Structure formats: structure tokens, C-alpha cells
Amino acid sequence: MNTEKEDSVSFGLDFEEAIARIAQTDPDEVTALVASDLPEDTIDTLLSAFEAAAQETETGNQFWTARELAPLLGYADYRNFLSIVEKAKAACRQMRLNPDDHFVDVTDMIEIGKGGKREVENIHLDRYACYLIAQNGDPRKRPISFAQNYFAIQTRRQELADEGDVDFGTLTENQKRLYLRNQVVEQNKLLASAAMSAGVQNRDFGKFHNRGYQGLYGGRGVDEIRSYKQLPQKAQILDHMGSTELAANLFRITQTEEKLRSKGIQGKEAACDAHYEVGQKVRQTMRELSGILPEDLPVAEDVKKIAAQERKQQRLRGATPIERAAQLPAKPDVSQPVEIDLRADLWKYALLIMSVRPNGEISTTDLINEMPNYVNLSEEHTAANASRKDSKFSQLVRNLKSHKTAKTNLIYQGYAEDIRGGFKITPKGMAYVMEYFTPGL
Predict the structure, then answer these.
(1) Residue 17 domain-assigned?
(2) pLDDT-derived band at 332, boundaries 50, 70, 90
(3) Which residue range forms the structural domain that includes residue 257?
(4) Which of 162, 195, 226 is the last residue of a domain?
(5) pLDDT, tens digit, for every residue of 48-63?
(6) 273 and 213 within one domain
(7) Which residue in 429, 422, 425 sits closest to 397, CA to CA?
(8) Starting at the edge strand that comes first in sequence, how are the strands of the sheet with 55-56 ordered?
(9) Are 198 and 259 contacting, i.e. CB atoms less than 8 angstroms apart?
(10) What is the pLDDT of residue 10?
């Protein structure tokens, strides 16, 4: 059965930027946004113009002025632009926020020629205010289309920075899944609230959520997705999604909530249709960028198991070194060193040793001395080099530090930090130790 729709749809944010907006990844900012609609030179020009128009208060807070923003967004008549500002303020109120916190009326002095000046009314706009203005502007104006992308991404990034949120790029795949799954739970609560405000009743929520899935998954609802992915009948489909698929669904949820509120959508059917449309557009974006649709992304391990593992890792990080060692059941017995490929696997056992040291730190010398308690060394490796005072083995350990710019190095990959005289394991390294040395958790 062909469940695809052939109609092409456009979407404000592409999928990479969507993930950035939710999880603060680090793509190439917005220089590639709406590339199909705007030529590259126009994108660069607009980006530079928006950045140049930004000003800062004495306390370092960034803002734009309405009179400078209006022409950037394609409004030659300032009075027409003020009508968009009023719509943005109304949207702000719908989000139960005080517009006065984001739209500040001021009186500015402008030059009128021959050194003269006069007072004009103006509005200082923070990033969120600019975002609301862009969202309520005329989407047929290309600068508005660009601004909708630009301010949406930058506003969310600033919110995440202010909240001290996670650095998504440093997380393992399992940590990304757990983080995004928790975000889905929280954002679904906001979506439910917006849907109720739009007129969706409790008995209608099953249909409402299913419509979002149908838009994103090419007509498939929850049961069809579960069947297509060959999941157990009672499995929660969100619990078996990888980070990419979770990010797509998270974006679907947040954008539907924003659409319901900002557009003032009313009525059960209208809300369901809005959810379906947003899902469709996310799907179209995934097709255009990667060619991989959400139902064809790989099924992942139940995130509940990942959560249990993460809780154990948290307990491990809070334990003493002796307690941490005891919680690594697959750790080699120090009285029975294991055979390993030193060139391929030495770094893994270096991380293991760091993981049970105070503060996760160890000097290079101590690492050389401690390693034989864990791995079996041949006479060839322990024999002194003819041209060096150290052995082949000790040189391999030193290479872990001296080769830190190599792409396969544990420091380059973020598993350990280069500290004075040695190494320090990172959270990513600790997570790897738990996954590698405690199989089956």
C-alpha cells in the first residue's frame, strides 16, 4: 500500500537545525537554511545584516530595535510592521508570558540632517520577541522566511545556554536517547495542554496523537509503526527509537504545540489536521536531507534498560574507587591479567584503570606501573628498546598521550583529558567503561 503523498511541502527548519534547536548540537549555524528558497549570497547577506543589527545593553543582553528590524524583514512601511508587532505581543500573551519583558517601548533620538535630531518612538526587542515577530510576519516575504529559521534556532540555543543545558555533542548515543526521550515526555505535556486549549477532549487524544504519527510516518499510526518495525504488541514505540528518530518526533511535538498556540487553532479536527501537517513536513525534510524516512531508521534497545544503566553509572560516579571497582563485574582480576591486542585495546584498559582512581586521574608513570596488573605483557613488550631506556610497552602507553591528535586516540575522541603529567577520564569515557566492561547490563 502506498501511503506517501506526492505533494511537496516546505518547512521552516531543516532537520539538522531542528535537532540543534532541541538539543544544542553544533551545525553550521544558519548559512544553509532555506537554501532551496534563497540564493547563497542572499542568505549570507541576511545573516550578516541580522547580526550587525543586534545591539547590547550595558549588562550584555542582546536586543534589536523595531525600526531597524522592519526593513530587514521586508517592511518599508513602519506602520504595517507595527501591526505585526501587535500580533507578536498577542502570541506572547497566549504563551502566558508578559510582553513587557520582551517588547520594551523606548524613545530614541535620530538624526534628521544638518546635525539636527528629533525624538521617535521605538521598541527594543529581545531575541524571543524577534522570533515571535518573524513567526507572525508574511511568509511570502523571503526575509521573513529566513528570519523564522534564524530566530527560532538562536532563541532556543540561548534558552539552553541560560539553563546550563547539556552539551549534546559530548553524549554517547545511549545518553542522547535518554535525554531526548525525557524531553519528549515533558514536551508532550505541553502539547497536551495546547491541544486541550484548542478543544481536544480526553477521549480524542488517541486520535490527535495518532494523526501526528501518521503525518511523520507516511500514513502509519502507532499500531502500524509497531508492526512495521516488528516490535512487541505492547511495546512503546518511542522507547525503541534511536536519537535521530527521537529528535524528529520531538521536533514534531514542539512545532505542533507552537502552531496550535501561535495560530490560535480551535476545534478537534483542526488540531488533528495541524498535527498531521507538521508531521508531514518533518517527514519531507528528512526525505530531502538524508533520504531515510523515520520508519526505516533502526530499532534501538528499550530505553528503559538504558535508563537503568545510566542510574547505575550515576551511582558509580558517586562511589569511592574501591566501590567503583567492585561494581565492574567483568573487570579482569588483577591476579589474572588478560591477553589483549596492545595496539588496538590498550586505551580501553587505560580508561578502566582511570575509572577506579580518585577523581578519575592517573599519571603516565602510574599507568605504566598499574597496567601489568590488568593485561598480560609478553617478553617482547617488556624488553627494553635498544635505543631507549623504556620498553615497547611503556612507549605504547606514552603514545596514548603523545599521539593525542590522532583521530583514533582516546583523548581526541573525548574519552579522556590530557592533564599535566597524565590523564583524566571524562563522563564519556566512564560511560564507555561501563558499557565495555559490564556487558549485558
Answers:
(1) no
(2) very low
(3) 168-301
(4) 162
(5) 677 778 887 777 778 8
(6) yes
(7) 422
(8) 55-56, 62-65, 116-125, 103-113
(9) no
(10) 36
Chain center to CA of 245: 12
Question: Total structural domains in the chain?
Answer: 3
Handedness of CA 95, 276, 152, 9 (dihedral sign): negative
**128: its cell numbers:** 524571543
Q: How many residues does the chain have?
A: 441
pLDDT at 166: 54
Q: What is the distance, to the nearest Å, from the Cα of residue 428 to the centroid of all Cα atoms in its chain? A: 16
Compute CA distances 414 → 3, 173, 405, 417, whole Å.
43, 14, 11, 7
> What average pLDDT does the chain have?
76
Q: How confident is the model at residue 158 (pLDDT cuts 50, 70, 90)?
A: low
Contact by Cβ (8 Å): 229, 237? yes
pLDDT at 424 (0 to 100): 93
Phi-psi region of 99 (alpha: psi -120 to 50; beta: other; left: phi over 0): alpha
Q: What is the pTM of this model?
A: 0.43
pLDDT of residue 214: 96
Whether 252 and 376 map to the same domain: the answer is: no
In a domain, 16, yes or no: no
Tens digits of residue pLDDT in 80-111? 999 999 998 988 887 777 888 899 999 887 77
Give tens-digit pLDDT for 238-263. Answer: 999 998 899 899 989 999 998 998 88
Q: Is residue 146 part of a domain?
A: yes
Does residue 387 sit in the same domain as residue 280? no
Say if 350 falls within a structural domain: yes
How deeply is 388 buried, as exposed, middle or buried, from its count of CB atoms within 10 A (0-12, 13-18, 19+)?
exposed
